Amino acid sequence: MSQVRVAIVMGSDSDLKVMEKGAKLLKELGVGCEVRVISAHRTPAEAKAFAEGLEERGVQVVIAGAGGAAHLAGVMAAHTVRPVIGVPVDSMMPGGLDALLSTVQMPPGIPVATVGVGGAKNAALLAVQMLALSDPELSARLKAHRAAQADEVRAKDAKVRAQFEG
Length: 166
Ligand code: RP5
Fold this sequence. Notes:
The chain is an alpha/beta fold. The protein contains 6 helices and 5 strands. Helix 3 links the parallel strand 3 and strand 4 (84-89). The model has no long low-confidence stretch (mean pLDDT 97). Bound molecules: 5-O-phosphono-beta-D-ribofuranose. 5-O-phosphono-beta-D-ribofuranose (RP5) binds next to strand 3.
């Protein structure tokens, strides 16, 4: 198994349908990750111990997703100086506004880089961009991923254009 460089944590297994998209993308880009269910409220001792142990285990970035009163990313950030990316999950209030505000509105001094509601893919890409700062091979894979994405859009453009051509 490759070295775990990114930890994906979520408040409940009900968040997995969102968070697994990030895990899948990390795998595609060849970044070792671990996926855990740890709750800021239901298992607070585990949350603290997990965050405190990240540095020693060599984990470089944390992606934390939770819904409702979403404090998991903030709790992770409170107990580590590793960068924490928060993913608000739409699980209680429609649209996930509760989770978005709970995740993004951190007090000055303890930052959480918050992506959009359900934005596990962007969280993974942001984590990869951080790791790529000191990893040229990963940076090359990231550029190839962007290029492939652009090709997909061009293919869609061609398809839509063809549909409406006179
Ligand atoms: C949050 O409460 C979790 O992150 C999840 O989004 C939400 C509901 O949890 P379950 O009742 O599905 O376990 O802590």
